[in-house]
What we know:
The structure holds two protein chains of two kinds.
Chain A (H helix, E strand, L loop, with lengths): L10 E10 L6 E11 L4 E6 L5 H8 L20 E4 L2 E2 L5 H11 E4 L11 H12 L4 H14 L15 H12 L6 E5 L7 H16 L3 E5 L3 H5 L3 E6 L2 E7 L1
Helix pairs in contact in A: 3-4, 3-5, 5-6
Chain B lengths: L1 H11 L1 H40 L2 E7 L6 H5 L24 H8 L5 E16 L2 E10 L1 H7 L6 E4 L3 H4 L3 E5 H7 L6 E5 L5 E10 L4 H4 L2 E5 H7 L8 E6 L5 H12 L1 E5 H4 L1 H39 L1 H9 L4 H35 L5 E2 L3 E2 L8 H28 L2 H8 L1
Parallel strand pairs in B: 3-8, 5-7
Antiparallel strand pairs in B: 1-9, 1-10, 2-3, 2-6, 2-9, 4-7, 5-8, 6-7, 11-12
Amino acid sequence: MARDDTTTPLLQAINVHRHLGWGETHVHVLRGVDLTIRHGDYVSIVGQSGSGKSTLLYLLGGLDRPSVQEEDGQAVDPRPRVLIDGNDTAEMSDLALANLRNEKVGFVFQFHYLLNEFTAQENVALPIFRLGRLKKKDAMDRAAELLAELGLSEKIRRRTNKLSGGEQQRVAIARAMANRPDVLLADEPTGNLDRKNGETVAAVFESLAAGGQTIVLVTHDSQLAKRAARQITMEDGLVIADHAG
Amino acid sequence: MVTFISIRYLLAHARQSIICITGVAISVAMFIAMTAMMSGFTDKFIIETVESSGHITIHDEPRQSDTPILETHFPKSQGVLILKGPKPRDTVQKIKNPTGLMAELMHLPGVLAASPTVSGNAILTYGTKTATTTVIGVDPTRHLRVTTIGDDVTEGSFNRLQTTANGVILGWGLASLIGARLDDTILLSSPTGGSSIARVVGIFQTGVTPVDYSRAYMLLNDAQTLLDKKNVVNEIVLRTEDYTQARELAAQVEAVCGYKTESWQEANANFLKIFRIQQIITYIITGALMVVAAFGVLNILIMAVLERVSDIAILKSFGLSRNDITRIYLLQGLVIGLVGSVIGLVCGKLAVETLRRIPIQMEGLVKADGLLMSESRQNYIISFVASLVIVMIAAVYPARRAASFDPVEVIRGAR
């Protein structure tokens, strides 16, 4: 169920620029992106490789910060800002930003990035431990619940390297959802999966979105993108289209 | 959570962790065993020397020489003064009024006992064998209050000096040099022409070779006669409450009595310097071992960091801060250091006990029937803290390296 929260946008990008590298390797990845994501939005971002969609996703999730200067050192005007639930990431300390990510943002990447030394349940419980609001046992129970919701109740105590690709990605989604984040950000979540597993993961996203979870996913998969309620198209570091699916 | 992740990472690489822990443990154990061995040797020498020779010795040398004759008579003369044909006065060096002086010194805080002695060189002859010795004339009752030489007498008894005419107690080294045994009669000759037929009433063994090979004790009167120093006391030996404070007390005693006064530290300064150098060398060697062990920890933690770059990225993505990541790796260093150090302490203790039981005849500066091991809580604490600190320092670089990874770069790099 979508939250009725129209006052503060959940995510907001204002004139976001991002420069990567220096000199000959310099790339102006984002060239002034403005974007607003509201609570309950299910958004897909598409575009060709190098269009800046993943970079935008990392900025929206507070994993990275926008460049405030052009390559020549001139200040970008107006100042680029990324707001997560009203918090300007540029003005936050590393620790505050880390805490914000822990509480409000869940990331899913193309590769699952699960910690192989831990079981599926422990992987999911780690962000809950970090948040520190639940006791260890309750955190583990919550992780088990999430895994069960994603059809992995039989495999919660398995080391993650003993799971299939689709199962690993579902564990990664469960981990991203562990602290009931305001937004789930997914970067090519089906890019490393076969069709069957990709479909399973897509169904998980649809189910979560139907439950009111805000989701922003970056994908090359046009079929997956079309399942989102809102589609944004990027090209050469700019948003060139933004329309409901 | 940081602890949970750290321990799991350590256990995941159990073999490397065990190697690290073993390295730390060996370095700590070596430190304890080597310092115990060095301290045992040093302590034996110091204790035996101090206890058999007294804590402070007052010599018969006045602190200041008498003012020269001309300066006495013409204290403000600007001219050149020449004294022709002076006749040196043949003065006997001795401590004046030793009994009164000892009574005065006994009032000084920290002085427990005083013993007057006379000493001089002599030649021992037994049959065809001769050896040079330092004869020390003592009042046995008083002398046993300032030294423990009585406890070192292995044959005969120190008190037999009082009951036997011309009795002498020899160091076992001297006795073995000339082949004399208990109750044998030997000839003592002094450079001043005195000689005495003496009966060996005791043989002592302090374990300190220079003492055992040089000293012979006689009754004070007998020694004064032999050395042609009638009624002369040329040394007063003092026992103090705390022998480690002897240097400070010696300065006070010298101020009171006006004679050159030496603490045991000054008397054995050369040996103490050698021991200090040995101690420094021991610390350097064992410290180097700890550094090598720390490099092992550094190496393995760096490998662990490099193997887990993507783990670090994902941990950061779901909210672990730089400090959290730093703590994960510092904690691994801490666990390796703690476990290694504790095992090292236990192994060090076992090594000390094992070495102590090895029967090795040692005869050098100190004579002993086995390796002399002297443990101190301080050395255990030093080794524990030092190894922990060195290992933690080694863990800082990998931990900071881990914390410095930019998760975005890592994730981009994996795409």
